[in-house]
Amino acid sequence: MESQICSYFYVRILDIGAIRRYLNEGQLYSIHLAGQSTVIGVMHVTFVDQTQVELKNIALLPAYRNQGYGQQALNDLKQMMVDLGYQTLLVGTGDGSLAAIGFYLRQGFRFDHIRKNFFEQYQAPIIENGIRLQDMVVLSQPL
Predict the structure, then answer these.
(1) More confident site: 85 or 1
(2) What dihedral angle (degrees, nearest 10) is formed by the CA atoms of 15, 136, 60, 78?
(3) Of 133, 132, 101, 135, which is closest to residue 118 (Cα–Cα)?
């Protein structure tokens, strides 16, 4: 099961060790096609405190990207967290992850803070859009 979960995240993060470390915390949710058992992605969240939850990762298989599935999964997650009593959803992404930052801003998130040097923990540099990731940009949204 772990190798299957890692295969979803592997398309976004090259350090499997880092994935394994944070899968032990929080909750993993699968993303399915409507009314089907087909898993097209996964989301992983951690519970920061009694009011805040953080989306650590959302990953869709390449064939299902840019079709609204990520947006729907995020909306479903927000409602689930509201139902559990959480008030704020946090999400972090790389400082060079321009598409992800744009996606979250379009979903109503606002810039919250920066986790300096976050990506130094990975064994190999992560490059996105020709930019070596260094800091994590954290965005937040009231639920």
Answers:
(1) 85
(2) 140
(3) 135
